[in-house]
Please model this.
Amino acid sequence: MDLDEIRQLADLLAAHDLSEIFVRDGERRILIRRGPPAGPVRAGPTIAPATHAGHAETAKRPEPAAAPEATGGPNGTYIRSPMVGTFYAAKEPGKPELVTVGSRVEPDTVVCVIDAMKVFNDIKADLSGTIEAVLVANAQPVEFGQPLFRVSPR
Amino acid sequence: MFARILIANRGEIALRVLRACIEMGIETVAVYSEADRDAAYLKLAHRAICIGPPPPRESYLLADRIIAAAEVANVSAIHPGYGFLSESATFAEQCRASKIEFIGPSAESIRLLGDKANAKKLARKCRVPCVPGSVDVIEEDDEAARVAAEIGYPVIIKAAAGGGGRGMRIAENEANLRTQLPAARAEAQGAFKDGRVYLEKLIEMPRHVEVQVLGDKYDNYLHLWERDCTLQRRHQKLVEESPSPAITGRTREELCKAAVRLAKAAGYYNAVTIEFLVDRHEQFYFIEANTRIQVEHPVTEMITGVDLVKWQIRVAASERLTLRQKDIPQYGCAIEARINAEDPDAGFRPCPGRIEVFRPPGGPGVRFDSHAYAGYAIPPYYDSLIGKLIVHRPTRAEAIASMRRCLEEFEIEPIRTTIPLHRRIFRAESFVTAEIDTSFIERNF
Model:
């Protein structure tokens, strides 16, 4: 079993608030489920668009999160968006990303910028740990509570 | 016409606006707090965006976040529903500054008509009768005593920025008045961030009759007749009907014309409701204007056949009102009963919780507007309105009979609702003979 693959699937679970992912690849099958046993499995993961170019939105709203208030998940802790807006990984275009996989963060570390109504907000980690995964793409629209980074706590 | 609209509200009014947009071929964006994440009506929207945790001041009242969602979703207009930000002039301005149309009036109209003291001044200017009272806000207690002596006790102290029946106190005499004034100012400051108060004569045993008006951006206005909302509990409406059984045709004409005069004087466009008190002699007095679509708008839609929400959207999109006053019927009688998740036997305590059984009525002339269903969990953070039951029949007697039948058919379990109270109301003789006033509920139930 490839642990990286499993981690990627777990990230997909968290990023799109799914309760279950089942992948079949030839003989291999992986089922990852989180939270208490739930009802019927919904149709596949929903993907938010990387840009909003005004074309018809096909994504429906995500599955209810297993633990809507907590930032914890089965594989780590998540930094979630505190607002609605557009996610940027760097302070300005062309500048390096504020954090990457492996970055150590403290509560006051600015991990990303979210543009809401032309105001660019520095988003702080509010926790200590190491960035394990970046869950959103640069310039992607994000909603309140959406997981942005997975962090392994210290 | 707008390609995409964001609905800055929740529950039954969000569903109402969604339905209008869907029928007009307009794409929809819904916003929701974490408490509303599982609400079924969200599935009807093309897109739904989470805007915060459950408390309204951290979600539905956060103008910045709603506009951020509107920009992220690239919408051309926002419908604010009722309550929340629907009467916020600042929010209307913020929308338009972000190049997003606010589906409602101009910010100036909201300021003019939404402030009760300003609205009264305007009403006097255009010969709309007002309740005798202070011309302006009362600065000092001595001034209050002088005005009260002129207009005659009992008087009512009202918050200039108030609404929804809050921030009102009655004074029977001068001593009473002087005691109540500081308390009234403090209450107003706390509830509305505005401690200004004014005085009005207390109209005894009044009926509450309001007029629906629509205006467009080209100075066209029309009224869609009146709604009688006399049956209230603590100033919260429970039953509304049209036509008002308490006024004759002549009074009706004058009342509706007065409402249009006021809307026109305010340069108002979109939907507005002008509220009046009517005394036993059919003398009417303007009390306040509501610069938004109202909960009880279906009553007007049934008797006129006009879809008010669709017209709100058209007016906002700068279309002309193509309806003519002479073509607006007032056909039959429509009555609405508000179904709230409240326990009438426990002081109307709100009863949030999960609905297990939900069997609404149906049949000819029955309309039920609700976002609820079996399995829906009513969140505790918002108002207790589960749905509006409206009947429309050719006569008032038939409408009452239909409503009784509907209330008998209606089953909601296990949460407590106002259905049992409505069953008693619609059998009460004084309701049937229309001899009620705004204290009916408190006195009888």
